[in-house]
Design a protein that fits this description.
0% strand; mainly alpha; single chain
Length: 248
């Protein structure tokens, strides 16, 4: 960990990260004594490398600096993924720290380095839903914001996460924000089908909390000429189903 922190050699740092990932896998049963140091390392790199401004990200004259910063974030996310796979109890212990930091990484990298943002979203996607309940107020606006951008892979990842948190305990508190935001996005985007599919999924899985918005969503479909019979039939089925079931 000291080598990772102190070396200026990008290749050596990458090799050290690979060794650290292997060690986490090998000593997973004894990781407790190192957990504080590991999350301190994660914090150091996220704190120092998060500020990837546009000039650093796109300036050819600073290519080495930019590459170092971006690769460090990428490697740090690999370390977090490794911990989540082989020592999930410690990710759970530090989730209060990880979620806000990871959302910062998404926010700062989504414009010029979306692959790192996608990796961050995929991490959140694999965290147990009940661990994300207290962070929906951060997660939902960030995912909605991503769905207004042009990167289709990031949109797909963001929608996957929104689908996944439907069963979170406090999801109901965000249904108004989500539906009104996606209806607005539907009005403004040319790539409408991924929005339509998400709204249909939401209707089919959110239960009665979706029912008050059926007319709004159908009206938006018609306004945007989403007139396929299949969608209207699905909405009718959702209305019927929701009349006889609860959210839980």
């Amino acid at each position: 960990m000291n080598l990772i922190r102190n070396t200026k050699d990008e290749n050596l740092r990458r090799d050290a990260f690979d060794v650290l990932k292997t060690l986490i896998i090998e000593i997973k049963e004894h990781i407790a004594r190192y957990s504080t140091s590991l999350f301190s390392l994660i914090n150091d790199f996220i704190a120092s490398d998060i500020y990837i401004n546009d000039k650093v990200a796109i300036s050819k004259s600073r290519l080495n600096s930019s590459t170092l910063k971006v690769s460090s974030l990428n490697e740090i996310m690999d370390i977090i993924d490794t911990l989540n796979s082989y020592a999930p109890a410690y990710v759970k212990e530090y989730i209060y720290f990880l979620v806000p930091k990871i959302l910062q990484v998404i926010e700062k990298t989504k414009k010029h380095h979306p692959k790192i943002g996608i990796k961050c979203i995929m991490f959140l996607l694999h965290v147990q839903n009940n661990l994300l309940d207290d962070y929906l107020y951060l997660i939902v606006p960030e995912m909605i914001g991503i769905c207004t951008k042009r990167d289709n892979n990031m949109k797909e990842a963001a929608i996957s996460l929104l689908k996944n948190i439907i069963r979170c305990k406090h999801f109901e508190e965000y249904i108004v924000q989500i539906i009104h935001s996606f209806v607005k996005i539907l009005d403004e985007t040319s790539d409408k089908m991924y929005i339509v599919q998400f709204l249909l999924h939401l209707g089919a899985n959110a239960g009665k909390i979706f029912s008050p918005f059926l007319l709004l969503v159908l009206s938006s479909f018609k306004k945007n000429k989403i007139l396929e019979e299949d969608y209207e039939t699905q909405m009718q089925n959702i209305a019927y189903s929701n009349s006889s079931k609860s959210f839980r």
